[in-house]
Design brief:
Belongs to the bacterial ribosomal protein bL35 family. One of its GO terms (cellular component) is large ribosomal subunit. Keywords: Ribonucleoprotein, Ribosomal protein. The protein has 125 residues and is an alpha+beta fold. The chain is built from 5 helices and 3 strands. The chain is elongated.
């Protein structure tokens, strides 16, 4: 069917001079960028229900900080704790007071740090 269509189109088409060649319906039409921009906007396929993807826990924060308690009461009043750094090795020259201080637990203060930690650890809380 297609071959018959192209043969009849060739027979019916007038043969103008090459300088005055008019576009025929059989020449491929190139899409310019302006015609693509004026067309309907593309839709995002992966974010159908708003968020745009899954939240992921920040793994470095998860390994260093742990929440204490359940955070009941006011919304998100969690306190986080971590260990002090610098006590694992090369500490034979340190005083016993310094080693005891490094062995203590450090707690996060309420405020901006807690908010940042909650955001980094949100999926795992």
């Amino acid at each position: 069917m297609l071959r018959l269509y192209t043969l009849t189109a060739r027979l019916l088409r007038p043969s103008p001079s090459p300088s005055l060649a008019l576009p025929t319906p059989f020449t491929p039409r190139s899409l310019s960028t302006t015609s693509r921009l004026l067309s309907a906007p593309r839709t995002r396929r992966f974010a159908q229900h708003g968020s745009g993807g899954k939240l992921k826990t920040h793994q470095a924060t998860k390994k260093r900080w742990t929440p204490t308690g359940s955070g009941s009461g006011k919304a998100f009043q969690l306190v986080f704790k971590r260990a002090y750094a610098g006590k694992s090795h090369l500490n034979s020259h340190m005083s016993s007071d310094r080693l005891n201080r490094l062995g203590a637990t450090a707690y996060s203060k309420a405020g901006r740090l807690n908010r940042t930690l909650r955001r980094l650890l949100a999926p795992s809380l």
